[in-house]
């Protein structure tokens, strides 16, 4: 099959490709994000389950094409989804409900917590480089090198001149990734302070959610304004034409999942792929099979 996948196949419930609404633009202010909004989507919550199922299938099929092309040696490109967000923004839900729809064979998932002793002994990008997706894969970073200009900045874990130099360094690193054939999909997920409170409260109400609760989340919550400032600077300094940031409002989980699914689909469509041609003669093989 030589089907090209560049054709517009955006569901009618989206007014425009989501990146056109969600791309960070100079002048955008984190403090003014309407976290409860659903930019570009004209449907509502009741439309979400069916659409999510449909689009997950589309995503899975494109991922399979990417994987197939690398297996056949035609293509060594990859896609890297970078998820950043405050606690409870829903990073885990994206991993489960969006990325979870793809074949695990072609996914490389990594979550980045507090660096281990070994990681601390290396440059902060060391663990990131070790987790990059191989050709043909979708990589998923649940937190990322951006923690090194977020939590590290907010808590002064290293002096300002050290974290201050990282923005340029990260831009150069991402340029290298893009030049090497990796498409970056950078997603900053935002919930409101009130929605975060409700989600944390739920974790304290339900025994099946206790495991998600971390008392330190309250301490971070108290630093919200400092985090907002750190996110603002991060977006301003590291949203580039080759690796732009997207701002996804996350108070409505059904919306953030649909939006990030579309961002991934767009990235894969942008690779302008087709199924790899057979490296055998189909007619001959059919004949051989019939006779076997
Ligand atoms: P999450 O909150 O993402 O669901 P979690 O509460 O289970 O995860 P971990 O995944 O173990 O915790 O670690 C996340 C924590 O690690 C966050 O508080 C994050 O800020 C912190 N962290 C990540 N990267 C760094 C870093 N480079 N330096 C310091 N702290 C970091």
From TrEMBL:
<feature type="region of interest" description="Disordered">
    <location>
        <begin position="29"/>
        <end position="50"/>
    </location>
</feature>
<feature type="domain" description="Polyphosphate kinase-2-related">
    <location>
        <begin position="59"/>
        <end position="270"/>
    </location>
</feature>
<dbReference type="InterPro" id="IPR022488">
    <property type="entry name" value="PPK2-related"/>
</dbReference>
<protein>
    <submittedName>
        <fullName>Polyphosphate kinase 2 family protein</fullName>
    </submittedName>
</protein>
<keyword id="KW-0418">Kinase</keyword>
<dbReference type="InterPro" id="IPR022300">
    <property type="entry name" value="PPK2-rel_1"/>
</dbReference>
<dbReference type="GO" id="GO:0016301">
    <property type="term" value="F:kinase activity"/>
</dbReference>
<dbReference type="Pfam" id="PF03976">
    <property type="entry name" value="PPK2"/>
</dbReference>
<keyword id="KW-0808">Transferase</keyword>
């Amino acid at each position: 099959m030589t089907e090209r996948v560049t054709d517009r196949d955006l569901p009618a419930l989206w007014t425009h490709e989501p990146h056109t609404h969600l791309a960070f633009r100079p002048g955008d202010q984190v403090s003014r994000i309407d976290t409860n909004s659903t930019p570009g989507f004209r449907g509502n919550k009741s439309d979400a389950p069916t659409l999510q199922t449909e689009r997950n299938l589309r995503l899975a099929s494109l991922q399979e094409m990417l994987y197939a092309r690398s297996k056949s040696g035609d293509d060594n490109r990859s896609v890297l989804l970078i998820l950043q967000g405050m606690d409870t923004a829903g990073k885990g839900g994206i991993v489960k409900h969006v990325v979870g729809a793809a074949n695990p064979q072609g996914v490389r998932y990594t979550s980045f917590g507090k660096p281990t002793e070994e990681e601390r002994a290396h440059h902060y990008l060391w663990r990131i480089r070790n987790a990059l997706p191989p050709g043909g894969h979708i990589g998923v970073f649940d937190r990322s090198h951006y923690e090194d200009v977020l939590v590290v900045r907010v808590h002064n874990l290293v002096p300002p001149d050290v974290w201050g130099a990282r923005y340029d360094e990260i831009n150069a690193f991402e340029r290298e990734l893009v030049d090497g054939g990796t498409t970056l999909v950078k997603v900053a997920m935002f919930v409101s302070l009130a929605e975060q409170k409700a989600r944390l409260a739920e974790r304290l109400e339900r025994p099946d959610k206790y495991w998600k609760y971390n008392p330190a989340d309250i301490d971070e919550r108290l630093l919200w304004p400092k985090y907002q400032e750190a996110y603002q600077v991060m977006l301003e300094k590291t949203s580039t034409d080759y690796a732009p940031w997207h701002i996804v409002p996350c108070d409505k989980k059904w919306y953030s999942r649909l939006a990030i699914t579309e961002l991934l689909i767009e990235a894969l469509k942008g690779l302008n792929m087709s199924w790899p041609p057979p490296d055998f003669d189909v007619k001959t093989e059919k004949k051989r099979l019939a006779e076997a």
